[in-house]
Amino acid sequence: MPSSIAVAVIGAGAIGRTHIDTIRSTPGVKLAGIVDPTADARSLADTNGVPYFPDTNALIAAKLADAAIVATPNELHLPVSEALLTAGLPVLLEKPVAESLVSALKLVSIVAATGVPLLVGHHRRHNPIVRTARAAIEAGDIGDLVMATVTSSLAKPAPYFQAEWRRKPGVGGPLLINLVHEIDQLRYFFGEISTVQSITSNSRRGFEVEDTAAVCLTFAGGGLATLCISDAAVGPWSWDLTANENPARFPAYDVPAHYYAGSRAGLSLPDLKLWKPRGTPDWTETLTSQHLPFAPAGTYVAQLEHFVDLVRMGGMPLVSAQDATANILVLDAIARAGASGQSVAVDLSPLTLSQDFKSEDRGHS
Ligand SMILES: NC(=O)c1ccc[n+]([C@@H]2O[C@H](COP(=O)([O-])OP(=O)(O)OC[C@H]3O[C@@H](n4cnc5c(N)ncnc54)[C@H](O)[C@@H]3O)[C@@H](O)[C@H]2O)c1
Question: What does UniProt give as the signal peptide span (predicted)?
Fold first, then answer.
């Protein structure tokens, strides 16, 4: 392996540019080139002094990359990743793993057939705040989960929706684009989700795809959660606007967005504040609180470093295609629950049938 891994970025839009900046600021990695059909991307490649390619096949033919990051619209995740994996190039694929269950399962089988590493970009799992919270939860610090509340108010501006894929049902919308992160994080902490209920609405923006949703979950290991998400609601109460993972794109407010209340203690995130009773839990007694210590580190850098390790040495990705497909199964159940008004069971059997479901570090089953 070369001393510096050459990583191409495919899709130089909003998050692709974050990946480009991350590559440029991370030792041991260099930008191999930019793939994107737009003129803006061509000038971005010129500015960065790297080769430009109009499509993935041209990148593969040039043999300049050791690996690639795929940050295209959701419906292109499967075909672009398939071309790369078949050519033997490891992939860091943005979330969601694919736009549909059919595409996600096809990708799972391509990863298994090629044996080439694919890491899905559920970047929060690389965030030291999330890793510290998970360690505390695993250590029993909050006891059994009783209830969780997740808020995600993301007032996106009109130009964001000029990209047509973001308005398309089955491809865009805040469930696939944003809620998938919350689902992944809850599964990482509390294990698999067994049933879902949901109400979705498109009345704020009037697009065909939803703009707002209220979702209820039950976990196989016990505990209930509610999630409220909207891409048309104003407020600082979302992970993106509180966790400070991407300061170049988002401001960060000092309020929580996630609350986990357990049988022993409560934990809010991303402030990592643990609320404990002095003795037996009693709502009339004053709780003590402390911020759990953690070592701050760049989340996208940590994700890229893990990807580079996979490129160099192989091994199990922190978020495998199979694992990320479980998030799609939950989203599918949420969509069916919203359409039917009924509670819907999450059926993970399509995954348990495929071998090697677990990622190295994905938590409870
Ligand atoms: N992990 C995160 O923090 C995060 C944040 C935002 C978006 N995402 C995900 O990243 C992906 C991209 O989202 P975005 O908001 O950056 O979208 P975007 O629309 O801003 O950018 C997509 C880019 O892909 C390019 N593109 C289109 N077809 C292409 C092709 N065939 N080959 C190469 N490039 C092509 C477009 O020209 C555009 O520049 C989505 O899957 C989204 O869900 C992840």
Answer: none
